[in-house]
Design brief:
With about 160 residues, the chain is mainly alpha-helical. The protein contains 1 helix and no strands.
């Protein structure tokens, strides 16, 4: 009986030991799973960190690009403003030149008309000169006739 009792105690103890080993194995399994999950989490965190670093780098590059675009945009705006100012000045100068050209054209037209009038006057004067020359010739002819007649009368009187 005592042997039976000892046997039962031993079996009891073996069972306890066996349960402890099982529990230890379960704990070890759970710890291994936890370790694997921690590793996965670490890798995921590392991936997220890498991705975040990449995103921050891209953000910095984008910000630099934005700054450059803003700078170029301001330069373009300034150049546009200068061009508009130059165009306005050129348009004013062109308008002044048109006014001057119109004035010159009007003056030229007046000179052309005056020149025509003067040519007409010159032709008229030349015609009058010819008429006067013809009249003078006629008068000279008449004077010659008169002179001849006077000479004849004087000869007859002598």
């Amino acid at each position: 009986m005592e042997q039976n009792l000892q046997y039962e105690i031993k079996q009891n103890e073996d069972q306890k030991q066996s349960r402890k080993v099982e529990q230890l194995q379960e704990c070890t399994h759970i710890l291994n799973q936890n370790f694997q999950q921690q590793q996965k989490i670490r890798f995921s965190l590392q991936d997220y960190d890498n991705e975040l670093t990449k995103i921050n780098r891209e953000k910095t590059e984008n910000q630099e690009s934005c700054n450059k675009i803003q700078q170029l945009s301001k330069q373009l705006y300034d150049q546009q403003k200068d061009l508009i100012h130059k165009i306005n000045n050129q348009q004013e100068q062109l308008a002044e030149q048109r006014i001057s050209a119109n004035k010159n054209s009007n003056e030229l037209d007046q000179l052309v008309y005056r020149n025509r009038d003067q040519k007409t006057n010159i032709r008229n004067l030349e015609d009058q000169k010819k008429e006067l020359e013809d009249y003078v010739k006629d008068l000279q002819g008449q004077i010659n006739l008169c002179t001849n007649e006077i000479s004849e009368i004087q000869q007859v009187r002598q």
